[in-house]
Amino acid sequence: MIRQRGGGTSYASSRKQFLLLAKATDEEDSSTRDEAATTLNLYGEATIRSESVPPPHEKINDFFSLPESASLLLRGSNNDEIVEITNVDNDLREAYKQQCIKLNASVPTANDLFYDVTTSAVKFPGLQIMSIATIGTKVIKEGHAGFPVYEFVLIRDATFAKGSRLFVWFFNKVTGKDKDKREDQATQSLNRIRVLPMDDGSITFECNANLSITIKIPAALMKIIPNKEKAEKTGGESLCATLKADIPTALSDFRQEYMNWRNNA
Predict the structure, then answer these.
(1) Helix, strand, or coil here: 149?
(2) Exposed e or buried b per residue across 79-110, where buried means at least 16 C-beta atoms within 10 angstroms of its C-beta
(3) The pTM is what?
(4) Neighbouring C-beta atoms of residue 73, cutoff 10 Å
(5) Of 191, 252, 254, 265, which is least surrounded by CB within 10 A?
(6) In 56-65, which positions are buried (b, 16+ CB within 10 angstroms) versus exposed (e)?
(7) Exposed/middle/buried for 27, CB within 10 Å: 0-12, 13-18, 19+?
(8) pLDDT tens digit string along 177-218?
(9) Cβ(211)–Cβ(76) under 8 Å?
């Protein structure tokens, strides 16, 4: 947190800076806007296991089939807002199907569920940037024991801003959200949570998650990114760190909820 001494001018200074940037953005020459962009491809992957759970496990398929069990994992360590999408249209189902193909996920079924996950991503004075991810979920079975596996497929994501009208307008301007332009999904993610049997009869929950992001950097900004390969490596490491920071808490909560449910079922 930045503490400002003297008169409380933080908000006023931010507003003035936004006005200057907004004016420059609005007056930007069209040829500059169309400068060739460099594409950065960032990729991160992580595999995390929970602590073991002692037997018995006869009812574990029933636990995985509960909608609230999937919601617990989607909520993550940040306790994000989860809303099930009950009115699923053909466009969403088709987008889900295409993402499953791209990510080599299992074929969609009529029993799959869809959720919107809302996260408060970034906060500035006078502006809050929110992120909404639409995720398709399914339960499949694998192995001779027929243990259940969750597959979470990111179908689409979007960001929007709340707060001062001026700041929101500027956010929409610099991100291109003021234009009616449809682009390919830039973020791809597949998350699998499986039951891993151990030699002593216990099990663990193992999560394998990957996240890839395609970013188009304007030529002007590439001048401060001298090495594309290094930028992609650093960005990928950042994605890995994000996954490793969020997954353990979600798995731990999921494990505890399963044990509570099993003992009371």
Answers:
(1) strand
(2) ebebeeeeeeeeebbebbbebbeebebbebee
(3) 0.77
(4) 21
(5) 265
(6) ebeebeebbe
(7) exposed
(8) 555 555 555 789 999 999 999 999 999 999 999 999 887 776
(9) no
